[in-house]
UniProtKB/TrEMBL annotation:
Pfam families: Beta-lactamase (PF00144). Residues 43-304 form the Beta-lactamase-related domain. This is Beta-lactamase family protein. Gene3D superfamilies: DD-peptidase/beta-lactamase superfamily. SUPFAM superfamilies: beta-lactamase/transpeptidase-like. It comes from Sphingomicrobium sediminis.
Length: 340
């Protein structure tokens, strides 16, 4: 359970002396003084690694933005500009930003293939991300670009293919060099992988876990710890990106039902009272659940992970961390549609 003392400390000037303890989870916080505190439920340690699920998308988005910062291409470059081997019909119109925002309108041939062939058959495919993009996402676009939000995995096959083509490296090697291995980031326990990765101080997993195909690592292959997640968010805001890059991660592209907003590869919270913007990340691969938040105004942060298929406990914990109590209502109403 989350100690009431912790909730009081977050809501006052009292410096917290410990991270909260959440059943079956590891948690970490970064205080306003820059200290990172971690706590592990019995059977786990602060060094226990977990699969981070969709936070992989945010990591690959950061990698794309670092390429943009280095002038390799822009967010408005088309797929054809950055991935000449792609044979799909949207190559000349779909932009990099559309992929990162899940607003590409790409044809989704992956889910029908999963239903028809089963995940085991797809996992056996020894193909690269570009070949997978041409296999699963080269049909007639399902919608005009930037017209609809659709959380399709084919967007992230494409993002991985772009990163691999532009870097001339497999995705795991490139992210190890450009993100997780950066000395300033100090992410010793973070990597991206396919299949079912080996984990340090591995948690007892309660529930199913989907092995990650090699060509889908940007969708869900990230492995990390809560402490590293906080370090990663801090590095992204402080050192990894230009001002324009950080602003791109804070700019809403689609409003969620709970009042948070999707940006590029992840979500943000915009505090209705203070206008503070907070990285508001979540990830899931079956039993593995993750929540992470970073206040860009104060530098305070929170991360929690478990392997017992309990997203609810983590959501309650991050809300307690930010507001001092669990929310009963949505964070803020989404804006009215244009013309209303």
């Amino acid at each position: 359970m989350i100690p009431s003392l912790f909730a009081l400390a977050i809501g006052s000037a009292v410096q917290p002396t410990a991270a909260p303890t959440i059943d079956n989870s590891v948690t970490a916080i970064r205080t306003e003084y820059g200290d990172v505190l971690a706590a592990a439920d019995p059977g786990l340690t602060p060094a226990t690694q977990f699969q981070a699920g969709s936070i992989s998308k945010w990591a690959c988005s950061v990698a794309i933005l670092r390429m943009v910062d280095s002038d390799r291409f822009t967010l408005d470059s088309t797929i054809g500009d950055v991935l000449p081997g792609y044979e799909g019909k949207g190559a000349a119109t779909i932009r990099v930003r559309d992929l990162l925002a899940n607003r590409s309108g790409l044809a989704d041939g992956l889910m029908p293939a999963l239903r028809e062939q089963g995940p085991e058959a797809l996992l056996m495919m020894d193909i690269g991300a570009l070949e997978a993009a041409n296999m699963f996402a080269a049909g007639d676009p399902a919608a005009p670009r930037d017209s609809d939000y659709s959380y399709d995995l084919v967007n992230w096959i494409m993002v991985q293919a772009i990163l691999e083509h532009q870097s001339s490296q497999p995705i795991a090697d490139y992210l190890a060099d450009d993100l997780f291995g950066q000395q300033a980031a100090n992410l010793a326990d973070t990597f991206i992988a396919s299949g079912i990765p080996d984990l340090n101080d591995a948690p007892a997993v309660e529930g199913d876990v989907m092995p990650v195909p090699g060509w889908l690592q940007c969708a869900g292959g990230m492995v990390t710890t809560p402490v590293d997640l906080i370090g990663f968010m801090y590095w992204v805001e402080q050192d990894a990106l230009s001002v324009d890059g950080v602003e791109a991660l804070m700019e809403p592209t689609t409003w969620n039902e709970d009042g948070t907003a999707y940006t590029l590869g992840g979500s943000i919270l915009i505090d209705a009272e203070t206008d503070q913007r907070v990285f508001w990340l979540s990830g899931s691969n079956g039993a593995f659940k993750s929540r992470a938040a970073y206040n860009l105004w104060t530098g305070e942060a929170f991360a929690a992970m478990n392997a017992v298929d309990d997203a609810g406990a983590l959501s309650r914990a991050v809300e307690t961390w930010y507001w001092g109590e669990q929310l009963a209502e949505p964070i803020m109403p989404p804006p009215a549609p244009p013309g209303d």
